[in-house]
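INTERNAL AUDIT FORM
Audit reference: QA-55
Scope: verify that the stored structure record matches its stored sequence.
Auditor: D.O.
Record contents follow.
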Amino acid sequence: MLPKSEKVIIDRADFYQHKLTDPIENIPPRFESLRKKLPHILNEIRIAKKNVMKAKKLFMRSAMFNKFHVLTYPDNHPVKAYLKQVLRTVDEEILDQSMNRFLFYLNEMEQYFDGPLDKIIIATCSTTNDRYLHNTLCPMVFSMPLDSGNRIVIMADAFDVQPIPTTKLHLTALHEASHRSDSVDFILSPTTRDAGDACEFMDVIDEALLNQYAEFIDNNSFFLKAYGHSIGRELNTDNVPWPIFHELIKRDPMLKANIVMDNADFIAIMISDIANNVKFNHNYRRARRPVRDVTSVVSDFTVPLLFRLVCSEIEAWSTGY
């Protein structure tokens, strides 16, 4: 929120939105930086799509649905072995639900990337006369849950100077594509390390439950309702505040596993790992990084305002304006 004493206005001429399928020639000359970045952005989207396809192909290579429409697979299925290590469990019920949930996201995300890619939009406010500078309040990529067009908006400028070198656009694209299938941002992956190996997912959740390393698990109302339905109780954020939600997670291994499997950041990393035959702990031996305060040398308001402007445009599109 802007301080009351500040009034900063971004004219619509100061930002540009480019659909992924638009020709590069459509980009106005003053947004030359986007022309230079566009080939890299396109390639990262292709990587995200390819990862979904490769992960699903590997998954279904040794899995099938029987005549009762039940997913079946051998005990040594590579994805099951991966999830067994990630979730640190041998509980067959938890693993079976996790396998089905993972396949659900693969199917939904494959359908998303196979659809018209004009629903992926690239936004920029970096012009030849006014260069973008990083702002931590601005998302790198976002989607809006009620947007009937299922659009994903890539804030292209954020990837120029983003503070975590291991953040990759294709992983962020996978993250947002999973949101179109109702994944949740329970927790980032993870904020206290250079990169999030899948072997650390359970550690990050435990740290959040113990209020360590600035980790926090968000309380999601839709997830709570679904969980309540599964245990025969009516749950919502009114009768289950976040401290009680945390206690439920501590006591219920199935609930903790469901959070892992429905967490957008975790989904993106798991798909990338499986698609590229990467071990769940491939980069585990590294030091934790301290929580860093990344400051900007430009107006702290510029990109958040751009974010709001893009949101308002999407809301207009969604209502047919």
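Auditor finding: record pair retrieved intact. The chain has one domain: 12-316.
Action required: none
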